[in-house]
C-alpha cells in the first residue's frame, strides 16, 4: 500500500473512512488538499453558512449529521469525525453518481461548472503529488 502525503488529519482516519464507504483513499486526500482546512478552522461563506475543519464540511450538513452524533464542535475539533463526515458526504454522491470523479465534484457543488472546476483542482493536486512520488497515475487522477 502506498504512503499518503502529509495530511492535516491522521492517515488512519482517511484509510478507515475510505474503507468503510468503499472510496479510494486518494479521493479523500485530494479533497483535503483542495479544501485546505485545518483543525479548529471555521470559514464563513457569503450565504452565512460555515465550512468546518480539515474537509471544510459545510454547516448546512449539521442537521443531517446530528443524527450520527456529529456536532459543529466535533467537526471542528475531532479530525477523524471531520474526515468521516466528509467521507459520508462523498459516499452519498458516489452512490448517486456511480463515478468517483463526479462525486468529488459534487462534494463541492451541484452546479456543473463549479463541480468541473473542483474536479480539475483535485486532479491537479493529486497529479502533482503522484508525480513528486514518482508514481504512474495510469489515468487515475484525470479529473474528468
TrEMBL record:
Natural source organism: Leptospirillum ferrooxidans (strain C2-3)
| Stretches assigned to the Transglycosylase SLT domain | 13-112
Q: Which domain of life is it from?
A: Bacteria
Q: Which CDD domains match?
A: LT_IagB-like
- Gene name for this UniProt entry: trbN
Q: Which Pfam families match?
A: SLT
| Classification via InterPro entries | Lysozyme-like_dom_sf, Transglycosylase_SLT_dom_1
Q: Please give the name of this protein.
A: Putative conjugal transfer protein
